[in-house]
Design goal:
By secondary structure, the protein is α/β, with parallel strands linked by helices. The protein is about 45% helix and about 15% strand.
Length: about 375
Amino acid sequence: MSTLMDWNTTKEILAQPKIWEAWGEELSRTLSDLRNWVTSSGATEVWFCGAGTSAYIGDLVSRGLAASCKLPLVSVPTTDLVSCPQLFKKEGTVPLVVSFGRSGNSAETIGTLDLLDAFFPNAPRLNITCNKESALATRRPKGGAEQRVVVLPDECHDSGFAMTSSFTTMVLTALAIFSNDPVETVAANMKELSKAASLVLSQMQEFVKGQDTPTRTVFVGSGPLTFMARESALKVMELAAGEIPALWDSCLGFRHGPKSFIVEGTRVFVFLSNDSFTRKYDLDLAEEIKQQFGELAITVVGHGSEADVAIPSGLSDVWNSVLCVLVAQWLGIFYSHKLNLNVDDPFVGRGTLTRVVSGVKLYEPIAG
């Protein structure tokens, strides 16, 4: 009988600390060149594009870096761009289109590249992918657009259904390129996160011991951590094959109706901000849930004595976000294994979801 440690997804989660540190050192050698290219690209704004988990990178990074980046940062999911291209054509706008993709071959990825060739032929492109043989890595623009490609280490090309190291390493790559932190600071941040990640993963292996699967889960955070809560909810729900419904929201937004999602057996995870002002709102919500639903309903994740699961890093929330999602990744595989599912493919035999989304019919976009 297989153990939790036998699954490829488990091994891919545990590999993240080493991947981040090594990639930080490698990326730092070309980072100045990449940043200079972005600055000289002629773009008037940056579009972060991807589907599903890859789209959440844009949500997270645009919220976390909006105040410090010189160019406006816009999250434009490929699922929106392909289906509603008319909503994104704006006179005078020159987007730098940053495309994220684990496989780099999804239908929406191909549809976005086709759309750019047809309607944004001069828009510069930055493709970030885990698959060196993918369309994102190998396809060249048909127009005169400049393009750069960043291929992540082979270890990031997850073999499991769930995006784990692929997601976190693409997040860190985007933060490295678009933050205004000095190059040497970026490599130091990724080294610090690597050490912290090992501690978080070690904690989680102890944290889940003796736990039952919850009836529902909720993940909440503030600022950029709101969007890591979104990815966290997805990780649990997809690894549990939908048997554990999951919800996400901001800490303040959760009270405005979504709190009705809590029923007996629900577990709420609050991601604590490292910003002293924002943190007050996070802790207020955690205390409210504890008072209304009991101590077992709430788990606080963050830096400091108030946390049930410690995030041993004093970096900003957007950088620390990759540590928070490790909690959900481990919960997801633990629940999946406890439900006797195939952790590497929870939907095996069902034919409803696949590792790379298939069955999407692309239509020729209409000009105008």
